[in-house]
């Protein structure tokens, strides 16, 4: 397997001339801090993540913009930057569905999502959610349980963590509601690795409509690596911040690519035509699923 490592560090260097906004996110009822909240600058391609204590900071170029706060189990909230020092989120009221626990045999496993002649490349995807679509095939009928999710990563620090998302598919083929009702945060080791995470506790089955799996980089202190260097142009010391891990991508031929950023989904198709069926070459997260019976 050939691995190329490229770094696109556009998100943490693009706003050197900006104001840093700090705040904290809490539960509106309990007053407890909410960790790992996704924070997006509305309609922009940059954002942040709340720490375990609910605190967050974000560099903004214009204080007139809005921030979007999103966390599983809570209603999404849009707040003016000037009013974001304390953000209270309201818990979502769920209509609980009947859960049927089926007996598993786990005598058979298949891995889906592999790419032939995979060429893996690493990108700093910034604060956005990149997805991979897994269609349902009749051949999965006898192995519909999702046992594990595997993901290729590159990290220069140990225990770097990322957030994994599972999305249903709407009638137009877009990612829609999240399947889980709580954050699924996973950690990976230092180096270039393929790591498998067991998800049997969620009792997930492969939906006949298929599903999207997405990952989200967490812009938190535990994931940060700082390096100081001399800027030869200004002859001053500069600090570069990099957030790990980097998820590896495959360069594949697909009809579309879905990305969530700035508080909304975007769909990339051939020549930006929404109804185009002609395939394009895209970078897709190197994520696979292991199914069992």
From TrEMBL:
What's one Pfam family the UniProt record gives for this protein?
Answer: CarbopepD_reg_2
Q: Does the keyword Signal apply?
A: yes
Q: Per the UniProt entry, what species is this protein from, by scientific name?
A: Flavobacterium myungsuense
Keywords carried by this UniProt record: Signal
The UniProt transmembrane annotation reads none
Q: Species lineage, top-down?
A: Bacteria, Pseudomonadati, Bacteroidota, Flavobacteriia, Flavobacteriales
Name listed for the protein in its UniProt record:
Carboxypeptidase-like regulatory domain-containing protein
Record bears the keyword Oxidoreductase: no
Q: Which residues are the signal sequence here?
A: 1-19
Superkingdom, according to UniProt? Bacteria
